[in-house]
Design brief:
about 500 residues; mainly alpha; three-stranded antiparallel beta sheet; two-stranded antiparallel sheet; 7 strands; about 50% helix; globular
Length: about 500
Amino acid sequence: MFEAQATTANQIERGTVPSQDSTFCCPRLSTACTRRQQFLEKEWSQEMAQAAQIEVIPCKICGDKSSGIHYGVITCEGCKGFFRRSQQNNAMYSCSRQRNCLIDRTNRNRCQHCRLQKCLALGMSPVKFGRMSKKQRDSLYAEVQKHQQSQEQAMSKEDPDMLTRAYSNSSSMGLSDLDDITTLPDSLLFDLPLTPESANSYYSLDLLGSAQSSPEQSSIELLDAKYIKQEYELFHDSSLSCHGGRLPLPEGISMLEIERASQNIVKSHLETCQYTLEELKRLTWTTYSQEEVRAAQSKSADVMWQECALQITNAIQYVVEFAKRITGFMDLCQNDQIILLKAGCLEVLLIRMCRAFNPINNTLLFDGKYTGPQLFKSLGCDDLINAIFELAKSLCRLQMTEEEMALFSAAVLLSPDRPWLNDTAKVQKLQDVAYLALQDTLQRNGSGEEKLTKMVSKLPMMKSICNLHIDKLEFFRLLHPETAYNFPPLYREVFASEVQYLCPSES
């Protein structure tokens, strides 16, 4: 529903997949959908079919599974993201070898200089956009046919059923929206630990694909049930059905379904927040002392990164539990569940962050105490930290209720625009329901479209922070490979997109 709008700087050529750096909007729920938008939607569906064919051709840069034509060349999401950041940052790379490094899927991150030179040599350009000529389309079609035939011939010789299995495998390769494609182990399914110590444990997430409860799910009851009940009753005090005539409902969605989904999402949110409102209120003025801040600043970068990775990992698992409790999420295939979590969990964390932000003294809750950005000085990521605090401040200005925050988080998490989803229609409906519930809640609270527009306007900033986090993580991994390799397994898996975590002996 939050459909990406193409920008001049990164227009999508025929045959590409949706760009993830665009500003989001909601044309389906707009009061007036123009003919131009309808035409673009029809044209987009045709181009998606072409994109599926183009993906048969491997990435021209590294040989990984491609996702379409990016900057004039067929590439994977990883090489697309690498080239984009190189151009945005005017990066100047150097090669420590002979400037002829082999660039393939396994070692594409080892030499940025040679990777960029290969991108340029094969024709990638930040100003190349528009439609392909007929000659280019014919050439592309011939190449697609060639790859399809060669794949079918190779597979049919070994096993007639291999073609089906290969397609199934390739569709689950690109499980991340963080600028790269990565394969995940079958065990990348985790459950909710409630202590920092347990965040280092690596749980099996096989349960994510089933309807049964997690082994650790009962421990969520450690949250005080009376606070959950009080907060839910406080923020859900009237029925959605009384506004049934005010919302244009898409076909197949009823107000009863929206009401039930709203109740489910808000309840799931309140049950899976790390801190209740009462706990946050008690901790508001519990801050780090000057001595503690100086001690943190004196820590080495690798020690501070390890501590932050641990805290983020613990928070991520609450987001996972939130997702698992949303009605309909567990009905998605395991591939789509993992894609949505990997691509959206950090964005949900950023939304939740404003609960634990004190705008009076510009402090954020970190490991049980409130602190300003100066505590994180030793990370060497001042721009990232400042951006996070600025986002928290701007989100606080919106004064979202817990109910609004829950529904906004669900709508962001359930984004059908994530690459490599198998059933986008199913995800789209889940997001539609969450978005309609959010819209109705805002109307009921007297905020209307103005507040909704402001909330949606924060999405590009959140996306930029997610990309910046990956950039900083990649740089840190290059400087401290052993520390990065010892990050909590869940943290490494969720953010193992552009960043490769090599065993210290390999690096």
